[in-house]
Specification:
The chain is α/β, with parallel strands linked by helices. It is about 60% helix and about 10% strand. The protein is built from 24 helices and 13 strands. Helix 6 links the parallel strand 5 and strand 6. The protein is globular, with a radius of gyration of 30 Å. The two termini are about 35 Å apart. The relative contact order is 0.10. It binds arginine. Arginine (ARG) binds next to helix 15 and strand 10.
Length: about 650
């Protein structure tokens, strides 16, 4: 049962006497931040009174008169200018918590309106190294799919792998010209990714060399304009503004030139790279041709693609296995190739797509750039594929909702995509679940010392190695000596390390950038998985020490006493899991769940400090408190599991 929703429903009924929009105002019921204002708080009287031109406190009193919550709340209080404070009765909290004892789903009944939801996440580009941004998508998407499924939705997870892009032109070109055959036999994926990086670097070099003169010209031009503006007499306000903006532009251009020069100099300083660059001057065009040949069905390139794919997918799978993240479908971009010409034809027939400079475009008012669905050279692109994918998901999978867990930098693409799809006649609920960039401590996109974006595999290894140090140190420091053997230590380190990485991605509001920082990630005391895993292990330790079989607590006739405020606080928190999961599902924000678990772990600590459990005064109190301990452990475990994070019985 969702308490918040129940209270909102009750308010909606009461508010029909006062407004035509009862739902809007009922939505202003929140859980209180501070216990002194009760458990929940309704802030609707103030804005509604303003609308009606009456006194908010009096209106609050009238709302309370119409409000029927006596079965679950004490009589509501009206505070300050018209806040309505609600406190659940102790009896209600007690009964509700008791009813969780034997409930495997911890009170989560699930949605009355199940939907068919496709979640598109992870979706890396194969043959390019997968990076921390893809990890973020993978972890957030997996958590959302677990929560939505737990709530009873029909969820299909789909890894929309980039397996048809221009990187294949680069790899094919690299394979044909630069292959180190022994290295390829040894570790094909490593060799392919070396080839990719090499060809990419050479293409980039020539493109940069070509671009440099025009940057130079723009700098000269900008300087002329600046000099002219500066030499004018008695500069007025608008001229000052212009000078400022010219200077800013100039600074950017100079910066761009510096970066470009550094790039070309780096290649020229390396004699091997320099030679290769000189031998392959036409490499950019040549790689584009290789991609085009692949797309056109050239036998040799097709054979190479088929040779590379299983190796690349295998490497991805080993990362997914390790993360314990699995997909129902992995329909890559290549899957949609046969459909693309049809998509363009249908959009043309509908009059939605038109020719523009040789390309086929959908123009959407209010957007500067058109949505290009076929390039001037005839190639279909990312956009065409995404349109075909929506059609497929609606028609073949019956999708009513499609969630795209993708970097916020693709916002414009999704904006154009969704509008185009709707006009085309595909109108499922389409949502871009966007997330910010993963930053290093220097607030720049996270890179390794060598400057590469970090490869995932080594990142996971590092997390586990660091977790192992923490686990070993903790175990060695135990008052009665270490309790874990080597194997247990390694298993725990794997779970703590991977949990730490996942949690770090999840606990930040996804819309924000987040700073990747090893030091805070595995902190035992902070807002981390480690802290939560430790709290769980602690609940298990208490039961073990007390010789308590948890099953003996999980009975429908379990009896709870809530005599201490810390007990009540913890019990109320336990009752709120359904509220939180509904919010996670509506907003697609796993951080609401991490926040809840973090607060619960805090409530549990306070409870444990203030309320003796194994040494409780009476048997009834002891079993009541043990039940709270067990429920806390189960809720943390369930919550973490919904985030894709495992727990251990002992740390
Ligand atoms: N492969 C893309 C990238 O790495 C992400 C794909 C996201 N999904 C989609 N349907 N566009 O940027």
């Amino acid at each position: 049962m969702n308490i918040l929703q129940t209270l909102r429903d009750r308010f909606a009924v009461a508010l029909t006497d006062f407004t035509d929009e009862p739902q809007t105002f009922a939505a202003m019921v929140r859980s209180s931040q501070d216990a002194k204002f009760g458990d929940y708080q309704a802030n609707c009287a103030m804005p509604l009174a303003k609308q009606l031109g009456t006194n908010p406190r009096e209106l609050a009193a009238r709302i309370v008169e119409s409000l029927d919550v006596a079965d679950l709340c004490d009589p509501p209080d009206i505070a300050g200018p018209g806040f309505i404070n609600l406190r659940l009765t102790d009896g209600w909290v007690r009964q509700r918590t008791q009813s969780l004892a034997a409930d495997l789903r911890l009170g989560v009944t699930g949605t009355p309106h199940p939907r068919n939801i496709v979640i598109d996440f992870s979706s890396p580009n194969v043959a390019k190294p997968m990076h921390v941004g893809h990890l973020r998508s993978t972890v957030i998407g997996d958590a959302l799919s677990r929560v939505l499924r737990f709530l009873g939705h029909q969820v299909t997870t789909d890894n929309h792998i980039g397996d048809w892009g221009t990187q294949f032109g680069m790899i094919i070109y690299g394979y044909k010209h630069f292959l180190d055959a022994d290295a390829y036999v040894e570790d094909p994926v490593a060799e392919l990714s070396r080839l990719y990086r090499l060809v990419n670097q050479l293409c980039d070099y020539h493109e940069t060399v070509e671009k440099l003169p025009s940057i130079g010209q723009r700098i000269d031009e900008q300087q002329r304009q600046l000099a002219a503006a500066e030499s004018a007499e008695s500069p007025d306000k608008s001229r000052k503004k212009r000078i400022k903006s010219l200077r800013a532009d100039l600074a950017l251009l100079n910066e761009a030139r510096k970066t470009a020069q550094a790039k070309t100099e780096a290649i020229e300083a390396d004699s091997t790279l320099k030679d290769l660059a000189e031998q392959h001057t036409d490499i950019s065009r040549a790689t584009r041709d290789e991609t085009a040949r692949l797309h056109a069905g050239d036998a040799e390139n097709r054979r190479l693609w088929e040779q590379f794919m299983p190796q690349c997918l295998g490497a991805l799978d080993s990362v997914y296995d390790r993360l314990d993240i699995h997909f129902d479908l992995s329909l890559g971009e290549s899957h949609y190739q046969p459909l693309l010409a049809g998509v363009v034809r249908q959009l043309r027939d509908k009059g939605l797509a038109t020719d523009s400079d040789g390309a086929v475009c959908v123009f959407i008012e209010g957007n500067e750039a058109p949505f290009i669905i076929q390039k001037a050279d005839g190639a279909f692109n990312y956009a065409t594929t995404d349109l075909a994918t929506i059609q497929y998901r609606v028609e073949e999978l019956g999708a009513e909702t499609i969630l795209y867990v993708v970097d916020s930098r693709q916002a414009e693409h999704f904006n154009l995509l969704f509008t185009t799809a709707q006009r085309w006649g595909y109108a499922p609920e389409l949502r871009h679940i966007s997330f910010g960039t993963v930053m290093g401590k220097d607030r720049k996109p996270y890179k390794t010392r060598s400057g590469d974006t970090v490869g995932l595999e080594s990142l996971l290894d590092e997390a586990v190695a660091k977790a192992r140090e923490i686990v070993v140190a903790g175990d060695d420091a135990k008052p009665d000596g270490p309790e874990l053997d080597e194997r247990a230590r390694s298993e725990i380190a794997e779970i703590v390390g991977l949990g730490g990485i996942k949690y770090a991605d999840l606990h930040i509001n996804r819309e924000s950038d987040y700073v990747f920082d090893w030091d805070t990630m595995l902190n035992m005391k902070g807002d981390t998985a480690t802290y939560m895993q430790y709290a769980y292990a602690r609940t298990r330790g208490i039961l073990r020490r007390g010789g308590v079989d948890p099953e003996s607590l999980r009975r429908p006739d379990a009896i709870l006493q809530l005599s201490h405020p810390a007990e009540r606080r913890l019990a109320l928190r336990l009752c709120q899991l359904p509220d939180v999961l509904d919010a996670v599902a509506t907003e697609c924000k796993p951080n609401l769940l991490t926040q809840y678990l973090f607060e619960m772990a805090g409530d549990f600590s306070t409870f444990f400090e203030q309320c003796p459990v194994l040494k409780a005064e009476t048997d009834q109190q002891r079993s009541s408190r043990l039940l709270l301990v067990d429920l806390t452990g189960r809720t943390i475990q369930q919550g973490l599991e919904l985030l894709g994070i495992h727990t251990v019985e002992q740390m």
